[in-house]
Amino acid sequence: MVQGCPHVVVAVDARQIVDWQSFHDVFAVSFGFPGFYGRNMDAWNDCMTYLDDPDAAMTTVHSPPGGIVVLKIAHAREFARRLPEIYAALIECSAFVNWRRLERGESPVLAVSFYE
């Protein structure tokens, strides 16, 4: 682990995302969303907001205590070119998750990293 903020990395290969359905499939599997996951960005936000709370049972991936989850998007440039609406939603909603937590007096829990 890199020194500094404790973290866990979840890699997502954006080549597997071809439309909204596959976006939600990939994230549901990668993060272990619950069976009742609503497969829309509001539901995505809700699941990702609780990355530090295993008791919430919204994901099977959890940040270490006091740390973050790093979402490592492989093939990000091509993803942004191929599916700009979905790419923009991912970026906006990732920021929203942290904004929501800050508004509640909680720490940010999600970082996004891009790989080619």
Secondary-structure map with pairings?
Blueprint: E1 7-13, H1 20-31, H2 41-49, E2 68-74, H3 76-82, H4 84-103, E3 110-115
Parallel strand pairs: 1-2, 2-3
Description:
The protein has 116 residues and is an alpha/beta fold. The chain has a single domain, classed as Barstar-like (Barnase, Chain D, 2-Layer Sandwich). Helix content is 41%, strand content 17%. It has 4 helices and 3 strands, in the order βααβααβ. It has a 3-stranded parallel beta sheet with strand order 1-2-3, covered by helices on one side. α2 crosses α4 and α3 crosses α4. It is globular, with a radius of gyration of 13 Å. The relative contact order is 0.21. The model has no long low-confidence stretch (mean pLDDT 96).
Defining key terms:
116 residues, alpha/beta, Barnase, Chain D, three-stranded parallel β-sheet, 4 helices, 3 strands
Brief synopsis:
With 116 residues, the chain is an alpha/beta fold. It has helices at residues 20-31, 41-49, 76-82, 84-103, and strands at 7-13, 68-74, 110-115.
CATH superfamily: Barstar-like
- Total number of β-strand segments? 3
Number of helices: 4
Return the CATH class.
Alpha Beta
Distance between the termini: 22 Å
Helix residue percentage: 40-55%
Shape: globular
What's the arrangement of strands in the largest beta sheet?
Answer: 1-2-3
Classify the fold: give the CATH topology. Barnase, Chain D
